[in-house]
Amino acid sequence: MNILQRMVDLPKALAARIGDHGAGLSLLVIRLGAMGDIVRTLPAVRLVRFGLPDARIYWLAWEPWSTLLAGHPDLDGVVAVPRAALRAQAKDPTRWGGHGLCLYCVSRP
Has residue 86 got a pLDDT over 70? Predict the structure, then answer.
């Protein structure tokens, strides 16, 4: 059993994909904020890529920061969105459909 399966009781289909190194799994990383917030989140994405090498990992980012993430070796793509659209969608990350898993990264003081 890997660490993701130990953290939460996952649905069987998701647990099977995680057990299969992420094959057939699509992840959406949401980390909104300044450039430093994005940079501090990259090590977590590296760990996800290490644990799920066959998963497809995308990052939802505000347009100006999308160039920072473009071409990153641990990402399969970047979804660049205008700030107004991000604010509306960030209130409910489950509305970003089409991905098997959504990693909503936030900072708490």
Answer: no
Written as one letter, the residue type at 97 is G
Helix (H, G, I), strand (E, B) or coil at 99: coil
Other beta carbons within 10 angstroms of residue 88's beta carbon come to 11
**Given this model, what pLDDT does residue 10 score?**
73
**pLDDT, tens only, 87-100:** 666 666 556 555 56
Q: In what order do the strands lie in the sheet with 26-30?
A: 77-81, 56-62, 26-30, 101-104
CATH of the domain at 54: 3.40.50.2000
Compute the distance between CA of residue 51 and CA of residue 63 in angstroms, rounded to an integer: 28
Tokens representing residue 28 in the block = 């959406």
